[in-house]
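User: Let's play a game. I give you a shape written as tokens, and you guess the letters that built it. Ready? Here's round one.
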């Protein structure tokens, strides 16, 4: 009899506890985020590291308890450096996987392909790479640089005495929206500074381009006109390897014709023979060589996480770190992962950069106020700082040098 009574009491207890158990199960349900970066194809050289960065941030946040008492689960997809595939992958993440936010894209063409998907489904994309501006969507948080936070200061530096007093500019880019729009802005900017149209050449090549002999010869001829010349490079992905190798093959050094690159960082240089690139310049908002304590701590954690003490850190990684911090802070502040609530909660937030700055989120433009740094490539593949902005630079996504269409 007592056995029957105990079983009945057990069933009653289970019945009474079942709502609590169900509530606990719901509370423990993971918060999903999407990771939308090319793991194969021409852009994998740049994007794989960004995927790993988000996985590290997720692992570290889960050790702190996740968000809202729930673990974070990263859903990783590979759009394979194929722009239409970015759109279908974004559709899967938002529609099928029901992710709360997506961290991804590198090229502007990939961002342009996914933008209609995010706007249709009211998703939230954290985009970590410098871009051309001329865009503002409530469904994108732009954690990379606008032209006035990278391209314009870089060209101003080249024109200064410290930068070599450059008078002629060869603008070399990969043929897609970011280089074309950025170069249109730069051409108009240079003209306002008195640079003649005959002292500017603009040239585009396809993704993955490797036959640089003719173009480098053209650069060499252009520079032989008696005026100091520089190349401003918006070449993306693995095409950079062939470009710099051809410069070296034709005997062009950084002292002869400096290259100022906007898409070459520590990640692209890792594992390459850096010899052809030594002395050339890069413009970003962060360098791994920063002496900030926050930077040293992050590098140590990163190399431990990735199990590789030689794995480097670069600018778009830092942008993803700040974007992830911003999302976590906003979710906790809002008490929800709802996109509208998170977007509202981001207003007024700051996040700590790896360079030791409290970076301000501009809710009006959905961009970050960021420092600008210009570096010279060293034989180690690191950057030696040659110039930095006095403080944070306000984002201006709509450039005054872009004529109205």
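Assistant: Ready! My guess for every position:
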């Amino acid at each position: 009899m007592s056995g029957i009574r105990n079983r009945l009491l057990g069933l009653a207890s289970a019945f009474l506890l079942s709502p609590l158990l169900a509530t606990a199960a719901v509370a423990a349900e993971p918060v999903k985020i999407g990771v939308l970066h090319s793991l194969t194809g021409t852009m994998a050289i740049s994007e794989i590291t960004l995927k790993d960065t988000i996985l590290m941030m997720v692992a570290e946040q889960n050790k702190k308890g996740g968000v809202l008492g729930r673990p974070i689960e990263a859903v990783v997809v590979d759009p394979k450096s194929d722009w239409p595939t970015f759109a279908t992958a974004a559709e899967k993440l938002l529609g099928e996987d029901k992710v709360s936010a997506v961290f991804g894209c590198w090229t502007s063409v990939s961002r342009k392909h996914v933008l209609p998907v995010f706007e249709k489904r009211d998703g939230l994309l954290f985009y970590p790479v410098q871009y051309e501006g001329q865009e503002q969507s409530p469904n994108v948080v732009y954690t990379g640089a606008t032209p006035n936070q990278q391209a314009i200061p870089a060209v101003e530096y080249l024109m200064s005495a410290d930068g070599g007093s450059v008078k002629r500019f060869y603008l070399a880019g990969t043929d897609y929206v970011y280089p074309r729009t950025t170069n249109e802005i730069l051409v108009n900017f240079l003209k306002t500074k008195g640079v003649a149209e005959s002292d500017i050449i603009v040239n585009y090549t396809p993704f993955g381009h490797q036959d640089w002999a003719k173009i480098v010869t053209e650069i060499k001829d252009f520079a032989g006109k008696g005026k100091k010349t520089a190349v401003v490079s918006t070449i993306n992905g693995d095409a950079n390897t062939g470009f710099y190798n051809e410069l070296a093959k034709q005997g062009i050094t950084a002292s002869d014709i400096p290259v100022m690159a906007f898409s070459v960082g520590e990640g692209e240089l890792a594992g390459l023979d850096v010899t052809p690139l030594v002395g050339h310049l890069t413009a970003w908002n962060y360098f791994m060589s920063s002496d900030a304590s926050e930077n040293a701590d992050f590098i140590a954690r990163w190399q431990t996480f990735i199990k590789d003490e030689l794995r480097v850190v670069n600018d778009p990684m830092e942008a993803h770190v700040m974007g992830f911090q911003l999302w976590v802070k906003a979710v906790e502040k809002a008490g929800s992962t709802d996109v509208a609530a998170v977007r509202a909660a981001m207003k007024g937030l700051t996040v700590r950069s790896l360079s030791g700055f409290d970076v301000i989120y501009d809710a009006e433009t959905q961009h970050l106020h960021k420092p600008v740094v210009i570096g010279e490539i060293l034989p180690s593949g690191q950057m030696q700082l040659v110039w930095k902005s006095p403080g944070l630079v306000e984002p201006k996504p709509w450039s005054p040098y872009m004529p109205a269409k």
